[in-house]
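I hope you will forgive my troubling you with a question about protein structure. The full record is reproduced below for your convenience:

——
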Amino acid sequence: MFLLLAALAGCATAPGKGVDACPPEPPVATQAFLRQGVRDARDRGYLWRIEQDGHASWLYGTLHVAAPAWAFPGPTVLRALKASDVLAVELDMLDAKSLRPALEDGAAPELDDARRARRDAVARNLCLPSPLLAALPLALQASTLTLLDARRDGLFAEFGIDAALSGAARALGKRVRALERAGDQMRVLSGDSQAETLRRFDETLGALESGTARATIARLAYAWADSDLGTLASYADWCDCAGTPAERALLHTLLGARNGPMADRIAALHASGRKVFVAVGSLHMIGADGLPALLAARGFTVTQVLPPPAPAAGEML
């Protein structure tokens, strides 16, 4: 959902006086890099097999920002992708035309001097010229800064799993379908009023200034790399984003409230007779309103594949 940063790649500048070292640039995808990535690929993330009407589809929890080596699907994930007919993603990050509404969904609210100064200070420390941000909706300004900050932990939007799978699916001759529209996502991210947009922007700036945004993304990302479903499932306990009723309501708006419509679209694609490989952000997979639970409620048989489920007590004897 936050992959606009790729459009700003290469815009970082040399750090000025008093500015921390710039975040690292993503590695160049040379032929040697690609060969090594394919050779060393291993299974990561969270995968479920979903079955209904005599055929199977797959549900895969992804990351929108990742270490370069993670962008290569491991053998279990690749087999599932190859066995599918269509890849379904939140947004097709390789379809520039479909993403354009995210850039055009209204002008950003005018920032007061204090907010502008805070934003510009964060941007300077990330070596991103402020004028590039000012032209974007505030939700994308916040996302861009957050993802640039993640580069300090070796995590890059350019190697996000969703985009990598879109490329792999196309190389395999698969169709790619979006489960959401960019304009709709932007409205969810921005909120339903200018005051809410500014409030969320303030919270993001605070998380960037304190380092909590970076720490949360890193913990989520490295849990994904290890297929650590326990850490993912307990996200609300450690994210510092669900401590108040307002924070929990916002988390539901950003995640749970979107899952019902996505589950309906996934079920419709599957019911058409196609084998669907669904790849959406991992946080859409957890809890009673996560996609595995919602699809089970819609009559699917849902079987966990990654991480491999622990054997039942009787099976260990």
Notes: The first strand starts at residue 46 and ends at 52. The mean pLDDT is 89.
